[in-house]
Every structure is written in structure tokens, then in C-alpha cells.
Specification:
heterodimer, A: alpha/beta, Rossmann fold, 2 domains, four-stranded parallel sheet, 8 strands, about 10% strand, B: mainly alpha, Fumarate Reductase Iron-sulfur Protein, Chain B, domain 2, globular
Chain lengths: ~290, ~180
Amino acid sequence: MTKYALYPGCVMPTEQYAYEISIRDALPLLNIALVDVEGFSCCGEPMKSMNQLMTLYLSARNLALAEKQNLDLFVPCPMCHLSLSECQRALENNPEMRDRINSMLASEDLQYKGSIDVVHTINLLHDHIGIEEIKKHVKKSLSGLKVATHYGCHLIRPSEVGRPVDSENPQKMETILKVLGAEPLDYPEKLDCCGAMLSANLPESALTKTGQKLQKVQDQGFDVFVDVCPWCHRMFDSKQVKAGETVAVKLEIPVMYLTQLLGLALGVKKEKLGLELNLSPVDKLKLGDK
Amino acid sequence: MGVVDLTSMAEEQSTLRNEINERLLKLKSEISDYCFQCAKCTSGCEAHKLLELEPHKIVALLKRGLIDEMVNSDVIWTCMSCFKCRERCPQKVAPVEILFALKNMAVASGKQIPGKYTSMLQSILSIGLIQDVQSVSNRDNKTKKRDNLGLPKVSKPLDAVKFQTAITKLAVEKI
């Protein structure tokens, strides 16, 4: 078993339970052991518009906490992953800032050293575990399932900071899905944003962005829409009906976390994986009934 | 110290405001000179069609020094931080980062903060996360919470007072 500390962030552990459940159900089957760490806080990314220093401080604080465990950090949320990666880069390039942040962290007996890696679901599966290893564990092929993927903006950009996938033609999720037996297909709107960051101040516009993308995906006849971000999933799955109303379309597209599909392919029972919590019509897929 | 002190232009926050101002002036003098107005940022902008955000114009206005005008404008709050402009700019100007600096300035100047930002900050101050554990419905309309889904306790700051003090200091600490 390879051990990783789990950094849950805010949205996944307080609301997007299906992501967390499917992560905890599926990853041990691929010999990954997750270690829960006490004391984490928000990564700071949602506060970037208010105060960027706060974002940097919060990220450094969480990294410092994880460093105490001497384990690489598994970060399932792309927003957190970007924030933590950007913090690492900023403190590495700017020793003065690093000293200043460390002097602030001292009040909680913490120190940022820069000694660990942060890993998202996609590079954990694709690069750390590896496609060949996943292949060995597939029990139920997802054959015939036409999948549209959605990576989430923060996972693919800005590449300058170092992101787990290519910014203009991300394919790692497709490679993972193919080894599970599914049929991922590219579509013109693949890189479009879900709009979630506008939920704080322009919620109607945020839903419109979601609706516009899902409408195109539905029109193109995909069976399922797959994501790896709790913010995006909240828009595409939890708020799908409302998103449809903003573009005057009845949306009925099953939306799942990659880790849910992975779990099914690895033979986890469909009663697990938090599948009851998806509000989009995932029953349509008749998954795991074979 | 509460959220109002944190985000308003209190006396002790002048250092923060000066710092953001310096950041903007630096962006103005060094970065915006590289922009040759190709508008590649605007052509890919996720907020352009829907909300008429034009990142190349933001850079042009910055170049002319119209900082206060932009800080006071609602348009800076339409960016959904998709980072396409930063990714695609041939001159590495990153309008999205200019927009972050402008929004930080608006907040530090005590302008009214739109939407839920203040409540998210309030929540971070009190529990460390942007929201507390929520009850959700499943497809059969049954209510579920973390504990009855077999999930462990949420990771939060252990010493709330120490955490809160540190965050509060940030508002007056020089960046």
C-alpha cells in the first residue's frame, strides 16, 4: 500500500460526499492508503478575489500541516490543487515571502519547508498508480459507455504553475476511461468553464454557463458526463435542473465523478460509491446491473 | 476583530492598501507595456459573451492609469477565473491576475463586496472552511449528512482562536 495524506478542502467534505465516498471506496483497491490529518482549513483559493495574501497564507498553512506527516498530499479538488501548487511555486521563488509566511505560521507552531508533492485524482491514477496497474484490477468493463469528460479550469490552467494535464488538449482522463472499457470522445465544448466561480456574486450567470455546456453535451448524444472537481460537479449534477431552466432546456444527462465510474469498473457494489447522492438521472445507465 | 474590520479601510490597513497599489503600479509600468492589444484573451474569455468582460480593454485602461475607475467598476467582478487569458497570452500579460489585484484593491478600499464573499470569509474565520457540513438530499429525497454516510469527522483547525488571530493579522500585515 502506498500512503498519501488526504487534503479534503471545503466543498467535498461539507457537501459533495459522493466524491469523497467513491475515493475512499475505490482507491484502496488500487493499493492506495489514505491518511486523515487533523487541523486543515480552506486552501484560500475562494478568497483570492478578496485578499491574495490570505490565499497564500492558508495554502502554506495546509502544506505545513501535511509536511508534518512526511507524506505526499492527495488533493481531489482542482481549486485546492492549484492554490497549493501556486503557493509552493511562490514560496520557492521568493525566499523573503517564505520567511514572512513562516513567521506568521509560527503562532500555530507550523513551518513551511516545501518538502512534499501535491497530487490530484488524475495524476494519482494516471501517473502514480499507472494505467497498466489499473488494467490489472478491472473487473467489470464499462464497454459501450460514451463519455464526455470535463477536467475543470483550475486543473488544466495555468500551465506555467505546473498542472497535472495538458492545457489545450487534456487526454489523461480519456486514457483512464479507455482502460476501464468506456468510450470517451472529444467534443467542441470540452474546455468550456462551468461558471462555478460566479456562484458567489452572479449565480444566474454561473448557472447559464453550466446549462450552455450541458445542453451541447446532451445534444451530442453522450451517455454520461464525467468530472473530477467538487465545484464543477455541484454545478453539473446538483444544480442540473436549475441550469437547464436558464437555457430553457430539459437537461437529463447523467453526471458522475470519475472515481464513481472507476469504482464500478473495479467491482465495487453500486450501493456504495455514493451513487444515491447524484441528483442527475444516473439510473438511466443501468450500471453495475450485469 | 470581525469581517468588517478585515475588509474595510481602517487606519491600520493603509499598509495593505499601499501594497496593493504598488502591485497595480508595477503591473501598469512593467506588464501592460508588453500588451499589443491582439485581444486573444478576449476571444477566449469565458465571461466575454455572457457578461461583456473584455480583458484586453482592462489592460489598455490599466496602461492609461485608470485604476480607480476600474476598482469602482462592477465589471471586474464578472471574471470567473478560468485562466484562459493567462494561458493564451502571447506576451504573458495575464489579465486574470490584473483583475485579482483590482478586486483586492476594491476590498481593501472598503467598497461593498458583492455576493457571498463576506459570508465565506466569515465562515473561514469561525470554522476554517468556507461552509460547514451540509445536509444533502439523495435522489429519493432522503436527507443525508456526513455521519450517516459513514464518513469520518471533517478536518478543521484545532485551535480556533489561534487560527482566527493569524487570519485577522493578515489584513494588517504588509504583503
